Amino acid sequence: MTDSTRATAPMAGSPRTPDMPDDIRQHTCTSAAAGAYPATDMSREARLARKQRAISGEPFGPGSHTDKEGKTMTGAQAIIASLEAEGVDTVFGYPGGTILNVYDEFELHGYKDKIRHILTAHEQGASHAADGYARSTGKVGVCFATSGPGATNLTTGIATAYYDSSPVVFITCNVSENLIGKDSFQEVDITGISMPITKCNYLVKDPGALADVLREAFAIARSGRPGPVLVDIAKNVTAAEADYEPLPLDQHANHGRLGAMLRRASHDLKTPEPDAGDIQTLLDLIEGARKPLVLVGGGVIRSKGAVPQFRTFIERLNAPVASTIMGGGACPGNHRLFTGMIGMHGSHASNLASDQCDLLIAVGCRFSDRVATDPATFAPNAKIVHIDIDRAEIDKNVLTHHHIIGDARRVLELLNQGMPPHDYPEWKEWVFSHKEVPLKKDDILHPHEVLETIQAVTGGDAIITTDVGQHQMWSAQYYHFSRPGQLITSGGFGTMGFGLGAAMGAKMGNPDKPVVLCTGDGCFRMNCHELATVEHYHIPVITVIFNNQTLGMVRQWQHLIYGERYSQTDLDRGPDFVKLANAYGIGGARCATQAEFEAALKKAVASGEPWVIECAIDKDAMVHPMVPGGAPVTDFLLD
Questions:
Q1: CA–CA distance, 279 with 83 (Å, rounded to integer)
Q2: Among 26, 37, 366, 532, which lies 20 to 30 A Cα-Cα from 56?
Q3: Is the dihedral of CA 173, 177, 182, 184 positive or negative?
Q4: What is the pLDDT of residue 7?
Q5: What pTM, to 2 d.p., does this model score?
Q6: Residue 279: helix, strand or coil by DSSP?
Q7: Closest by alpha carbon to 518, among 427, 572, 449?
Q8: pLDDT digits (tens, 9 = 90+) for 211-264
Q9: Which residues are annotated as catalytic?
Q10: Residue 540: how many CB atoms within 10 A of its CB?
């Protein structure tokens, strides 16, 4: 083990890598000559022939070919060429001293015409934009930042991606190798800081290792349970020259760090084939059930091709379906079997069904404290079956009767092959008798009217991004999501300030889809500076502010639990959000009724330009229902 390139992964006990040994969790990987990135077993003649095939235009495999292979270039050139080889078309970032060599490549060699770079107002905005791009497209997002505070400004975005299993590669540049460890200007150990919130991270000190490191970073980010990877590169590496000859994609599994990970059967990069006996056990449990309930989570959204298999499964099972917030879009919101969200702000139908069901089939969810508010009493009458790609999630929060380890798509595919049609008319009648009645309408603009209007005006086609709080819950409850990647929200980390950056990334990745940010007046204060980015790049994101002049969700807790002591939650201050939007050159409107909001939204959609629409919401409007933390999901504090 040497010090020219260090690679780290999450600490021992991480749910992503539960039993990774020390030499994998934190080790130094070097160029092929030093042994940690070994050369292929091919002879010199074979390697030269491979290089000639690259130069002549013959690809080695999917994603492995670029016309830059087999050439000598700087580390900065190798970084950009590697991104080009991975098919990256958009990068979000913010430059600084240590990463200038990389940024220079956009001008020096014309990469700005091949890869779009979006300069955000703040590094955190770039991190959320790359995340939103990844979630909405299914591709790996890419984010650049410089050393020191530039890198640390990414940490909230990295953690947000980590908790929601979003594939993003973060590329930072540190001070030069001779300055590392000397408390140099804008030096920080970003690999150490980010270790608990990344699937893997690297500190690269050898230009010869760059191509392999970046290939592995992308493979790790998108494989198994997706997640963020950070690559930190010493500045001198970006200027030094080396042969750009990355290991072809079809050989990655046999070499280097990626090969070492794949050889460990427990590692989440190696997607396990579901056990046939486990599949049959679940089929037998279904056959004997009288009151089954399906719970869908974000794993079905993240698994490519899983949603069609999931919809086939629920149609054949023909039983009620509940969702976590991250599972939004797996089952259409207006589907006849859909009971709504489950948990702390779950619907009566979902929560009561979980209490009375005799079989709970959870697909791709982790039973967080917002879902299983009291794990000991969750689904007390049911045999709980947990389907997940990550073995570490099994029995972590809720004890299960049976589990199946595997990718959601493959598990559901096998279940569909062996499951006959079922029906549970009496059970469904009981569950759906608890569906909430339609909300009343009057002269006040209600949160549900805002979401219903967005649904109507956009034809239900809009991608909805949110920040965190009451507006987030209202969005999940009242907008009928119909496809994966349509709801982009920070479900695990709960990041205020996530929404606008995520909306920018979603729109850049989906230019033909309307993108609406639903945010609160508290959250929007944390990211409104990104309006500068929206305006400059003409990103037609429509921002809808639920303005109740308070930190609404915190106030709701203070009202219900803290004796109406509203400590530090009133936002009785500026700015004027319409004037703020105008200051950035963006159109704005203020609405107090449903008719005013509908007119403003139609105008914004028709304009094809970014807009900010402020909606006056009652200060005491609350998210219904509500279960207090730690209580059984049927103990509604607020109906």
A1: 40
A2: 37
A3: negative
A4: 53
A5: 0.89
A6: helix
A7: 449
A8: 889 988 998 999 889 999 999 999 999 999 988 876 666 666 676 666 776 676
A9: 123, 185-186, 235, 553
A10: 16
